[in-house]
Amino acid sequence: MQQLKTTREERGKEIAEKMGQIKRLTKDLYLVRSQSGPGAYEVTHSEIGWKCACPDHVTRGAKCKHIWAVEFSVAIRRQVEKVRITPLAEGVCILCGSSNIVKDGIRHNAYGDIQVFFCKDCLQHFTLNVGFEYMKKAPQDITSAMQLYFSGLSLRNVTKALKLRGVSASHVTVYKWITKYTALMEKYIEKIQPQVGDTWRADELYVRIRGNMKYLFALMDDETRYWIAQEVAGTKYSHDAAGLLHTGSEIAGKRPGILITDGLQAYKDAFKKEFGTMAAPRSRHISAIQFSTPANNNKMERINGEIRDREKVMRGLKKVDTPILPGYQIFHNFIREHEALQGKTPAEACGISVEGENRWMTLIQNAAIPRRLTGEAIPH
Length: 380
What we know:
380 residues, alpha+beta, 3 domains, four-stranded antiparallel β-sheet
């Protein structure tokens, strides 16, 4: 009997290691292809463990090879490579990681003096003010302004909040900070691949840009709520959404197993164009949304609500290529903690950890150092 269990385990491992044998529908529902004929068996998870629809499990109550295969598949998913984005450490060269550094003068800045260091190994001068060089305000003030803005305050109310801290800055200055650092972080983040799940959701939301109605198309991972991609279109009916799906697959490094959308024809055409294939494993498109089933788009509507709240404060966007939308995407993915993720950010759920008390500063400083473009922590 023990030998039989071992055989089931080994066969399950073989199934898990083959491509296209397991399809993940939800975190508690998998389809495992039959190894002896056509069709597939449903493997579901409940409070008492895994259940399989195959005869081996139903008639004998055994832990079948299909359950073993799913457990191996889940274990493989959890063993994703973690990306740690760490704050700059004192006593270490930010360029080469050497601890062979000495103090070498003071740089006078508008908001105070900054210590300059010299690395005896790479022969470079540096400061811990990286990313905020030549700025007239302290990094803490700049990042606080960004946090306040993306948390819901208007530009003018942000300036009032800063004034309570003794910091004088106009609403135009705050907008320039958002523009500058959003662009910097975007280039850095696009080089880090999130470990998203196999079920994605897409939806469109109308926004006003200079008084004209436009549509924001957004793509989100179902499991981690990671906002994968976005694009602005003039209309939703004739828009080619294939670009959104193509960008999403490039960022994620794969195509989804399931794409959930509303019934908009643009999604159907885009899905066929980008993910349509006769080869297994094939992606599945669910476009008949029903609010009483897991196929509903409630999670996507939550992002839409966040964007709508931000737009109301701004009374509309000012231009199509506004930095506000990509800036809010960064805020949603890397800064804002979500109750549905047990207090994690979507990035953390995807294996990307942004460390430090000030995540804005950690992202900005890492983005400003070429050595840190991979998101790897510099060795101490």
